[in-house]
Amino acid sequence: MKQKKKFSIIVPTYNRPELLGEFLESLKVQKFEPDDFEVLIVDNNSENDVKKQIEDFINQNPKFSGVIRYLYEPKQGVGYCWNNGIENAQGQLLIFIDDDASLHYDYFITLTKDFKSPIENITGGGHVSPVFEHQKPAWIYKYIMPVFAEINLGKRSKFPKNKHPFGTNMIISKDVFEKIGKFNPDIVKNMNIVPPGTLEKDFFDRVRKANIPVYYFHDLVVWHFIPQEKMSRDYVKEQIIEAMRINKEISKDKGFLNFIFLFGNEIIKWLAAIFLWFYYILSSQWEKASMLLKIRRWKTRELFK
C-alpha cells in the first residue's frame, strides 16, 4: 500500500467502550495536520459496536473524517491486531497505543517536532504513567510497576538492554517490520493473561540482534488507566507467573545456554531481593517487604515447574 501519511496511530480494542471513549476524547485536544496523521482502531471481536462508536465520534468531530479508520481483526489477541494495523498503515512511523491509555495534550505536536521525513530505522517507546482508579496500595512498589506497563526512564535517550518498550506507548518505523518481520502472536498461550511486554520482548530481541537502536522518547507521554480489579495481589501474581512461564519457554527454545542464563539471572535477583527486603524491614515498610519475597518465590517456582 502506498504510504500517504507520516504517522499511523494503531489502537487495538476489545470490549472496553468506556476506555476507548476516553482515548478518543484525548484526540480532541491534539493539534495536527490531517494529511500527516491517521488513527487505526482495530476491533478484536468486541461485543460492543466499535464501528458505530467511531462513526458517532467522527460525526460529532468532523475534523477526524479521513483521519480515523476502523479495522476488524477476527483472530483473538493483541498481536494479531498490531499486525493488522501494520499491514493497513499508510504512515512512515507507526505508534502503538492501548485503548485504556490517553494521550498527553501535546502528543501529536511532539511527534511532528521530533520526527522529520524520511523516517527510517526507528524503534522505541515513550513515557507511560499509570493512573490508578483508587489510591495505590502500599504493597505496590516500583519493581511491581512494570506489571502496570509503567515506563519512566527519566532523561535517558535509549532503553537499557534489560528493558524494552510496552505496547501501551510504542514507536516503530514501518521499514523495521520489513527488515525483521512483524510480531509473533503465537507466543501467547493464554489469551486471558497477557503480561505487559510479552510480545514486545520477542520483537525487541530481534531488533537488537539486527543492531537497531531502541530509543526512549521521554516527551511522548500517555496516561494508562488501572482499574480497581487490577489492584490486587491475585492479579499481580497471575501476571508475574505467566511472564516467567513465557520467558522460560522462550529461553528453552533458544537453547540450553539461554535457560542457564535465565537461571543465573534469577539467583542474582534473589540476592538483590534479600538486600532490599532488609531495607524495607528496617524502614518499617512491611507490606513491600512481604510482597518482594512473594514475587521472587512465585517466579522461582514457575521456573522449576
List keywords for this structure.
alpha/beta, 8 strands, 2 domains, 305 residues, Spore Coat Polysaccharide Biosynthesis Protein SpsA, Chain A, 9 helices
Second-tier CATH architecture of the largest domain:
Alpha-Beta Complex
Mean pLDDT: 92
CATH fold label of the largest domain: Spore Coat Polysaccharide Biosynthesis Protein SpsA, Chain A
Oligomer: single chain
**Unreliable stretches, pLDDT < 50, 5 or more residues?**
none
Q: Between the first and last Cα atoms, what is the distance in angstroms? A: 46 Å
Strand order of the largest sheet: 3-2-1-4-7-6-8-5
Strand percentage lies at: 15-25%
How many strands, what sense, and barrel or not for the largest sheet? 8 strands, mixed
Give the beta-strand count: 8
Radius of gyration, in angstroms, nearest whole number? 20 Å
Main structural class? alpha/beta
Order of helices and strands: EHEHEHEEHEEHHEHHH
The portion of residues assigned to helices is: 40-55%
Number of helices: 9
